[in-house]
Amino acid sequence: MVAETKPTVTYTPKNFRPSRPIYYGIRVVFFIHDKILLTAWESKRASDHIEWIRVITRDGPLNLVNVYNPPGHVGQPQLKKWPEIAEILCEIGQENVILLGDFNYHHPAWGRTGTLKELKVDYLLL
């Protein structure tokens, strides 16, 4: 499985299929390998900036949430998509979840030495 931010309409990796139709303006999509049965996953929610799929594994369900957060104004970063993310996380409840994507946030924990910490980004650290 591949999670993509800012996909192009013209390219799908060999032996993979998109989790939904790709169109101009879409910012996130999953590419699912042909060996993963169609009955082993389901699309739970999808918008231009967030996609949530649920995969059934041997160890139980795994929820994957792919996010593209548009960049904020310099000096005033914000996670514009947080209300939708929080709603999805509440709906997932106690099931396993991986939250991934391009948040357009900077923090020393995942940046190089000297990266300045942006305001209100600590809640992404689990």
Automatic annotation (TrEMBL):
<dbReference type="GO" id="GO:0003824">
    <property type="term" value="F:catalytic activity"/>
</dbReference>
<dbReference type="Pfam" id="PF14529">
    <property type="entry name" value="Exo_endo_phos_2"/>
</dbReference>
<dbReference type="InterPro" id="IPR036691">
    <property type="entry name" value="Endo/exonu/phosph_ase_sf"/>
</dbReference>
<protein>
    <recommendedName>
        <fullName>Endonuclease/exonuclease/phosphatase domain-containing protein</fullName>
    </recommendedName>
</protein>
<dbReference type="InterPro" id="IPR005135">
    <property type="entry name" value="Endo/exonuclease/phosphatase"/>
</dbReference>
<feature type="domain" description="Endonuclease/exonuclease/phosphatase">
    <location>
        <begin position="63"/>
        <end position="113"/>
    </location>
</feature>
